[in-house]
Amino acid sequence: MKKILSLAVVVFMFLALSCGRRSEPIEVTPVMQTSADSMSYVLGMNLGRNLMGIDSLLNVDAVCEGLRDAYFDRALLNDEVARAAYLKYMNYDIYERVKHYETQFLEELRKADRKFVATSSGLTYKVHQLGDTKKTARNNRDTVLVRYRVLDVAGGVVDTTYYKSDTARLAVGQMSRGVIEATKLIGEGGHIEAWIPSTLAFGSAGCDSLGVKPNTMLYYELWLIDVENR
Hints:
Chitinase A, domain 3; seven-stranded antiparallel β-sheet; alpha+beta
C-alpha cells in the first residue's frame, strides 16, 4: 500500500503543473497496450527530463538497465561498489566532464565565428581593438583600470561595470589567470571578448561573492583603459 501511495504522490506532482495550465479537457490518444504501460512511460518521461537537468552526459541505456535490475531485485553492482562508483563520478570524474563540455562548447563557438581563436591555455578570444601591447601588467603589484561585463554560459550577468559606464581599478594579484592573460593580449587601450575556461577563472572553488558555482566557464567583455606598473 505504501508503494502505491508513493507512486500516486509522484504522479500527482508530475501532472499538477500541466493540469494547472489548462482549463479545457485534453483528449488522450492511447499509444500503449494498457493503462499501466502508458503510466510507466509517463514516469519514464518524467524521470528522463529530471535526469537531463541533473547531468546530460548520463548513459541512458545504463540508467534503464539499472531501473530494470532494481525493479526485479537484481544488480550488477553491490551497495559498496555502487557507492564507490557514485563517489568517483561525482568527486573525481567531474573534471573530465567539465573539460569535455568546455572543449566542445569552445570548438563549436570557433566554428560559428572564425574570429575567435584559442591560446594554448584554452582561453578563447576575439580582439575588437588592439591597444598598446608594450603597456601590459608585469607582476601582481601592477594595477589596471578596466571596464567590463561578465556573463555565464546561459547569458546571465555575473558582474559588470558596463551598464553604468563605470570603471574599476584592480590589482593584478586580484585577477584570475584568464583575465590576466586576456589583458596581456590587447595591452592598454584594447577591447577584447574572451571565454575563460573554469580552470582559468574561479576553478573548483567558485566565487560565493559573485554567485559563481565551482567549475564554471565565464564570458568576459573587457576594455583595458590604463595600466600602472609598479
